[in-house]
Design goal:
This protein has 274 residues and is of the alpha/beta class. It has a single domain, classed as Alpha-Beta Barrel (TIM Barrel). It is built from 11 helices and 8 strands. α6 links the parallel β4 and β5. It is globular, with a radius of gyration of 20 Å. It binds 3-methyl-2-oxobutanoic acid.
């Protein structure tokens, strides 16, 4: 197809055939505030992205939790930008309408606004992400502003921030009200369209949710948030060390082991192939 300027267009504008055009936007997610409580789940590859989308979950986070649940690390800190790019591309290929939020891994945004913007641009341009998420409150307001200033929607993340939790405060519930409120306000002021509250005291989460005009996405932060997010491998029971706040809706890890045992036994018994 030729575009109006006569140049061959890589992606013709055919909304019926080009599902990417119909992806849920950050603006639409922001407008859900006060109207509907919505689920968010993580995904890291094409088939599971598709399962999540088919389940009617239209916001998918390619979290740096990929480090724990897929790559075998004990923490998220070693996850690289290249890894998030690789997994984001896979989830984008496996989905058509969902909003794909890519996590900015540790080291990809801390050094400078320019560095943060460069990383965010890669996640959108090469990864196909619809928005990016980064950890931190008041200390990250400039980064959020720099990225949103270039037109890339940003999600903030306060409370437990796993990329650095292991270096200092750990993973215990965050209860420092004034600090949390200040962080939440700063993230909103920076231009974020939503904010993750991770393991934040339930009443403080309620207060922040009521106070902000952007949706709060809770994880381990109680029932008052505008949205909830869980890690896919916790929802499906595919990771042995789920946090206590997570609910396992299936035990797919067990099922997988049983299926593999059956296959192995049938090969040993010579009943497979039939
Ligand atoms: O990496 C991740 O999966 C996350 C969620 C836990 C919010 O950041």
């Amino acid at each position: 197809m030729k575009a109006r300027n006569g140049v061959e267009s890589a992606r013709p504008y055919e909304p019926e055939k080009n599902p990417a055009i119909r992806r849920l936007t950050a603006g639409a997610i922001k407008r859900r505030k006060g109207k509907t409580t919505f689920p968010v789940a993580t995904a890291y590859d094409a088939p599971f992205g598709q399962f999540v989308e088919r389940a009617g979950i239209d916001v998918i986070l390619v979290g740096d939790s990929v480090g724990n649940v897929v790559l075998g690390f004990d923490e998220t800190t070693p996850v690289t930008l290249e890894s998030i790019l690789y997994h984001t591309q896979a989830v984008v290929r496996g989905t058509t309408r969902a909003h794909i939020m890519a996590d900015m891994p540790f080291g990809s945004y801390q050094v400078s606004n320019e560095d943060a913007l460069r990383s965010a641009i890669r996640l959108v341009k090469e990864g196909g992400a619809c928005s990016v998420k980064l950890e931190g409150g008041r200390d990250q307001t400039d980064r959020i502003r720099a990225i949103t200033g270039a037109g890339i929607p940003v999600v903030g993340h306060i409370g437990v921030t796993p990329q650095t939790a292991g270096l200092g405060p750990g993973f215990k519930m965050r209860t420092h009200r004034d600090r949390l409120i200040d962080d939440a306000r700063s993230v909103e002021a920076g231009g974020a369209y939503a904010i993750v509250l991770e393991v934040v005291d339930y009443e403080i989460s309620r207060e922040i949710t009521e106070m902000l005009s952007i949706p709060t996405i809770g994880i381990g932060s109680g029932p008052h948030c505008d949205s909830q997010v869980l890690v896919l491998h916790d929802i499906l029971g595919m990771y042995p060390h789920s946090p206590s706040f997570a609910k396992r809706y299936a035990e797919i890890g067990e099922l997988a082991t049983q299926a593999l045992e059956s296959y192995a036994q049938e090969v040993r018994d010579r009943t497979f192939p039939p």
